[in-house]
Amino acid sequence: MKKFEEKTVETQEIYDGKVVKLQVDSVTLPDGATSKREIIKHPGAVAIIALTDDDKVVMVEQYRKPLEKSIVEIPAGKLEPGEEPHVTAKRELEEETGYTTDNLQYITSFYTSPGFADEIIYLYFTDELKQLKENVEGDEDEFVELLELSLEEAEKLVKEERVHDAKTAYALLYLRMRK
Amino acid sequence: MKKFEEKTVETQEIYDGKVVKLQVDSVTLPDGATSKREIIKHPGAVAIIALTDDDKVVMVEQYRKPLEKSIVEIPAGKLEPGEEPHVTAKRELEEETGYTTDNLQYITSFYTSPGFADEIIYLYFTDELKQLKENVEGDEDEFVELLELSLEEAEKLVKEERVHDAKTAYALLYLRMRK
């Protein structure tokens, strides 16, 4: 849908980084006026709702520099260039948790911050996990700790704001509704 | 929690815009190595789950330049400097929908993109709406269309990817669970 479309007059590239790019678009608004839109370009990401055989939610704790705190999230990671989301999902599950699966079900996708970023998250579900025999190396600048929590334990962390991100909040509601 | 804390060695300010700031922090990792973190600073936002007397979900359609499409979302908006989230929530509800309320219940908050941004959304709920007698002016560069949809109609838009953002996806799950 293109309702209220804002046509690009000019794009100014501000920054091209490791994770994000920043550009400022000059746009024509529906009433003919002009404005500027600050846009973060992001490669997109996946996240995985993974349940162990004893019905625990597989989660990872990691430090999030923008928040200056560590939070507990479902496993997730960025798409590599040209990588299909379900391939990313299996790879990130293996790297972050030591589990793998042959049965990843696609649930939904959503943009995280549509006002200023094009980041999209593809969300998957599995309850058929197998332990990897050998650990798979992840990004060398990522430090994550594996947690396996009952849904009730995870929901308690929401109240404590130790679970504090949108995809994980969604995932826990999804699991609650599935019960 | 500060597990795996990444200490800032240096902050490089890249861009200071209307909505976002971009900085790159040089950090010391838990193993002593150094890395860079690209960080978007955002003022934070609110979103409102609002139900009409006949149980319709109040939503707004608007063009989202980063996605190059219009999507249907729950009403939302950015915090002004120093503004309390519940004040923002009432103001954005009035500006975007023509409704007001004296009963906003805080539900939860979540970071939208903890890997690269500090944007937090404070989520509110109301089912006590009153029509404003006069429209309140919103931002002059925002064009929004009001929609009032049954939960089933809104869920259909999720499947069509016309509802396609994290906060609205969360809101619709929340309403489904409330039934």
Automatic annotation (TrEMBL), chains A, B:
The keyword Hydrolase applies. This is NUDIX domain-containing protein. It holds the Pfam family NUDIX. PANTHER family: NUDIX HYDROLASE DOMAIN-CONTAINING PROTEIN, UDP/ADP-SUGAR PYROPHOSPHATASE. Residues 40-171 form the Nudix hydrolase domain. Keywords: Coiled coil, Hydrolase. InterPro entries: NUDIX_hydrolase-like_dom_sf, NUDIX_hydrolase_CS, NUDIX_hydrolase_dom. Its cofactor is Mg(2+). Residues 129-164 form a coiled coil. The keyword Coiled coil applies.
